[in-house]
Amino acid sequence: MKEKLVLVGNGMAGIRTLEELLKLVPEAYEITVFGEEPYPNYNRIMLSPVLAGEKTIDDIILNDEQWYKDNGITLHTGKKVATIDRLNRKVICADGTIAEYDRLILATGSQPFVLPLPGNDLDGVISFRDISDVDKMLEAAQQYQHAVVIGGGLLGLEAANGLMKQGMQVTVIHLMDRLMEKQLDVQAASMLKASLEERGMQFLMGAETEAIIGQERVEKIRLKDGTELYTDLVVMAVGIRPNIELAKKARIHCVRGIVVNDTLQTYDPRIYAVGECVEHRGQTYGLVAPLFEMAKVCANHLAQHGIGLYQGSVTSTKLKVTGIDLFSVGDFIGDDKTEELVYKDEASGVYRKLVVENNRLRGAVMYGDTVDGAWYFDLLRDQTDIADFRKSILFGQAHLGDSGHGEENRVAQLADSAEICGCNGVCKGEIVEAITKKKLFTLEEVRAHTKASSSCGSCTGLVESLLAVTVGGDYSVAPHLKPMCGCTDFTHDEVRATIREQQLKSIPQVMQFLEWKTPNGCGKCRPGLNYYLLCAWPDEYHDDYQSRFINERAHANIQKDGTYSVVPRMWGGETTPAELKAIAEIAEKYKVPTVHVTGGQRIDMLGIKKADLPAIWGDLSKAGFVSGHAYGKAIRTVKTCVGKEWCRFGTQNSTQMGIELEKMTWGSWTPHKFKLAVSGCPRNCAEATIKDFGVVAVDSGWELHVGGNGGVKVRATDFLCHVKTPEEVKEYCAAFLQLYREEAHYLERTAPWIERVGLSYVKSRIVEDEQNRRQLAERFLFSQKYSQKDPWAERAQGEDAHEFEPIVQIV
Amino acid sequence: MQSVRTEKAQAWVKVGAIDEIPRLGARVVKTAEYDIAVFRTADDRFFAMRDECPHKQGPLSQGIVHGDKVSCPLHDWKIHLQTGIAVAPDEGCTATFPVKLEGDQVYLSLTPNEGCPNQ
Ligand code: SRM
Ligand SMILES: Cc1cc2nc3c(=O)[nH]c(=O)nc-3n(C[C@H](O)[C@H](O)[C@H](O)COP(=O)(O)OP(=O)(O)OC[C@H]3O[C@@H](n4cnc5c(N)ncnc54)[C@H](O)[C@@H]3O)c2cc1C
Ligand code: SF4
Ligand code: FES
Fold this sequence. Notes:
- The complex is a heterodimer.
- Chain A contains 26 helices and 37 strands.
- By secondary structure, chain A is α/β, with parallel strands linked by helices.
- In chain A, the strands form ten sheets. In chain A, strands 3-2-1-7-19 form a five-stranded parallel beta sheet. A five-stranded parallel beta sheet of chain A has the order 9-16-10-11-12, with helices on one face.
- The radius of gyration of chain A is 31 Å and the shape is globular.
- The model of chain A is unreliable at 401-409 and 474-479 (pLDDT under 50).
- By secondary structure, chain B is mainly beta.
- Chain B has one domain: Rieske [2Fe-2S] iron-sulphur domain (Rieske Iron-sulfur Protein), CATH 2.102.10.10.
- Helices cover 0% and strands 39% of the residues of chain B.
- In chain B, the strands form three sheets. Chain B has a four-stranded antiparallel beta sheet with strand order 3-4-5-9, with no helix packed on it. A three-stranded antiparallel beta sheet of chain B has the order 2-11-10, with no helix packed on it. In chain B, strands 6-7-8 form a three-stranded antiparallel beta sheet, with no helix packed on it.
- The mean pLDDT of chain B is 90.
- The chains are: A alpha/beta, B mainly beta.
- At the A-B interface, helix 17 and strand 37 of A face strand 1, strand 2, strand 3 and strand 6 of B.
- The structure holds siroheme (SRM), flavin-adenine dinucleotide, iron/sulfur cluster and FE2/S2 (inorganic) cluster.
- The site of siroheme (SRM) has 23 residues of chain A, from strand 32.
């Protein structure tokens, strides 16, 4: 018989936990849900837009009754659970309904704090928490004119804004002398206040309410200083308290919230708790992003994939008042150990402050232009050393060399027909429609349903902004330390470390040791694992071709019609008449439909049938060619210019340098593709400064540049160092490559990798630490002993023949 | 590669020995009208379907096989090997064909299973 699972609290955290659970083990439990509110689960954070008239209740329902039916869940709405009988494992409702459980989830949310003032029970005195509060406010706005909101925090301001939009005159009473004091500093708070005042909101700052006065309905409000204010409605938004009444009554350990461990279990291990009612490591949360992380871990544990741990969350703040952009995260006040970086342009209404300690972000507050909020948030969570770009950090990520799509972030203003995803031709309207109709709220879901951002990823930022605009708040914030894929909860770094420490030497071993959730992974994790193993054990690991993407398995690029393209290596981009003749003859012999000079200084033969590949490779081998690896997460091309041999400006023999680099590095597998170039002088005709490793010859030697990227998001290289001899160029190149090979995540190119770990770190390992540089270079050369076998020649001689031949031809 | 002569409706065609198809891989059977991909899972189950992705006809035989699904090499749709149906939210299906084992030999029927209109 199935185990019984009961959920108390039909809100965001609880239902999210069930959704995560159903994804993992759809059939494991017989599920019953109790919710005190008379509605199915809805998106509470969107109550503000509903109040402001920008959304309707229907828009914000997340799971309709049908969803519960489809998943076989028994739903009791409008029923409050009054008691938990832990001894007999059942919950009992106020109306006598009983449900037995094997496991129980408490997701009772929080309760708005009601100030203990005389008159707080009068009609027209309400909080801002659920649909019925919104209904009351909308009703009041129909009949009355004046409203007072007590509390100038996030909720209070969103309530005040909504009521104003409904035509009321609103005064906000705030105890402190600045708004949102927990989220904003003095400057940002005063800018916020000024723009709200401009819209007609009134404020009484530093004011404390003494009493609410009226017969049946509220008539006026009196402050400590004696001021009296006529009003028809009072909204209290002075804070929330975790709702722990039920848990306490059942004698489950609570402090401020229900105390849980890292698997979200309470002191009674059969009982879990998630959401705002929870206290985890002394911390309570009032935003959805952490609740979703909790939901995931809790579901994992319920599904008995017991490896995920919840380790607390860092949260950031935004305000959902249309037209006002503010963002804050972390400690934005600072102390005597911290420094402040400030950008202020009052006329344009833009303000940014970063609080920095030892070149690491501790907090940020922004007003007016918040496009870079997510970037600062990442830098903070990663504790990235910002020394290298400290001078430009206030101008945002766009100034780090992103000349790609940086300016387009004002998505809210874009027309519905504006194209967001250039790869898949998806426009704004389609994405917004999918988000609203299909109730999507993560980037992954938008990718799955619309294909937007699922290819090259350059529009990811736009899609995330669209999500934020459409669904609200920081809804889309993905958990930061991402697992490798849905098959595991472990991150790339954890998997790599385990492979080394536990000496795991095959994909099944890794999956078994780390308790993979799927029998043999998926198309995402298997290629990653294959690479990690190959990199860790170059001499021992047996490459698993079934875990490679087709291009790498077949050593050629698959084309849209299922044919392949073949790009032979041309060392350093240099060729000879003999080579060209050979290519010409082979192209004619195999009737190659297209011969193309590539962007990487090679010749591409396109449109080759798979079965012909071994033969064409055989002919290319005979002419002296090896594979160009144009298909792989591997060393690609080394572009060069003609350099000193011919060019009147050339300072060194750049072509020769390029050829030597390519001979040293070819055949190596890397986390993502890796490109090199060597230019003969700073005119840089080989475009070395947008390569993963670029070399620019100068009169006194060679300048080495790293982390460049053309393609989707252009990034110019960072200058690594200057060296004198070709031997040094090669040693630094080998060391850099090996560091990248050993430490980057699979599918992370050098550009994002360097932005994640910082140039200073790379310099400390390669430039400043000579011994370490030598060792890295040695490890690289060691692994090259095993990878510099030409895969084409091997296959021309019959290896993996099954890959290229049909098994049967039926005529 | 062997060549087999057959009438389309004829019951079973011998494909080859089990070990000619790699685990977590596929081989192609060419017919006059189209290619059929024969898949082998990690636990040695065999499935066959038309070698055309319901999205844009990508050759599914070239994809990565995992569990009882294959990821299309062109745009990464996932297709259930048993039913030929695309994993939601993608929509579409590919015709599947009966497969059976006799000893260590794999046999394929050229009459597609019912259910998928894209035959
Ligand atoms: C063939 C070639 C186009 C051409 O005819 O010129 C090409 C073709 C492809 N490029 Fe490229 N790229 C080619 C030079 C480039 C260059 C120029 C260069 O290398 O100097 C760039 C920009 C430089 C860079 O990478 O930083 C380039 C940036 C990309 C990107 C974006 C990478 C990025 O990090 O932003 C992709 C997408 C990806 O890798 O995910 C890509 C992906 C592709 C793929 C593999 C797309 C695919 O998955 O099918 C194309 C393979 C077609 C094929 O079968 O050959 N190609 N691609 C060029 C092959 C160079 C070679 O000789 O090996
Ligand atoms: C107006 C508003 C705006 C917000 N804006 C944002 C935002 O922009 N960004 C953000 O991240 N967060 C925002 N939040 C906070 C966010 O909504 C909450 O963090 C989130 O809803 C908490 O989820 P939960 O499941 O813990 O609690 P809830 O969603 O409150 O769910 C708890 C449910 O349990 C029910 N319940 C309680 N006790 C019992 C019982 N004994 N028996 C049966 N049922 C019971 C309650 O009725 C309730 O429906 C906002 C909140 C409000 C009110
Ligand atoms: S070759 Fe490169 S730029 Fe051209 S279509 Fe393909 S991926 Fe896009
Ligand atoms: S053709 Fe298969 S996913 Fe596009």
